[in-house]
Amino acid sequence: MNSTLNGLLDWPADVDAVVVAPVFELKSLAAKLGSRTKGQLVAEVHSIQSDNHVAHQLDLVLPSRKLRRRVLTATHGREDLYPVEIDAKCFEPMDEPDPDWHYPVAATYPEFQDLLKDVLNSDDVRSAIHSLKAQAELVD
Q1: How far apart are the C-alpha atoms of 99 and 139, rounded to whole Å?
Q2: CA-CA distance, 115 to 122, in Å (whole number)?
Q3: Quick one: pLDDT at residue 140?
Q4: DSSP type of residue 139
Q5: Residue ranges of domains in the chain
Q6: What pLDDT, on a 0 to 100 scale, did the predictor assign at position 61?
Q7: What does the alpha-carbon distance between residue 131 and residue 65 come to, in Å, rounded to a whole number?
Q8: In what order do the strands lie in the sheet with 42-49?
């Protein structure tokens, strides 16, 4: 075998990286919110399975008033956890969508984390958090 050619071929640099299943990453995020808000505001993850796909829904929940706001839906194959599509309001086009438009897809765990950061720091999610926290202060 040609050693020069062999030196050019190798597995991707991230082959030995730590990788977490999307549902576990979302559940970890959910647990952090409840801890940070001392339970005033929590997040829940619900999974829905079809024949070929699994969709994980991450919701903000204000338990005291039974209010819920969807943050995102992460969808992947039943057997292939990556790539994963992220359906979140912050990714929707402002104008009329292009017929070829689609929600972003993370091919890898780091890409998934980057998309989650974008969603969690979006104006939509920040507004939902503030709205729910303000609702908690309302007296019936």
Answers
A1: 46
A2: 11
A3: 53
A4: -
A5: 18-90+101-134
A6: 96
A7: 12
A8: 42-49, 53-62, 67-77, 84-87, 105-106
pLDDT tens digit string along 62-121?
999 999 999 999 999 999 999 999 999 999 988 877 888 899 999 999 999 999 999 999
Q: What is the DSSP string of 97-117?
A: PPTT----EESSHHHHHHHHH
Alpha-carbon gap, residue 47 to 30, rounded angstroms: 14
CA 75 vs CA 79, 84, 105, 129: distances in Å = 12, 5, 9, 23
Dihedral through CA 111, CA 113, CA 118, CA 119, nearest 10? 120
- Is there a contact between 24 and 32 (Cβ–Cβ < 8 Å)? no
Q: Residue for token digits 């070929």?
A: 52
pTM of the predicted structure, to 2 decimals: 0.88
Give the separation between CA 82 and CA 103, rounded to whole angstroms.
15
Q: Phi/psi of residue 10, each to 5°?
A: -160, 165
Percent of the chain residues past pLDDT 70, beyond the cut: 93
The per-residue pLDDT of the chain, averaged, comes to 92
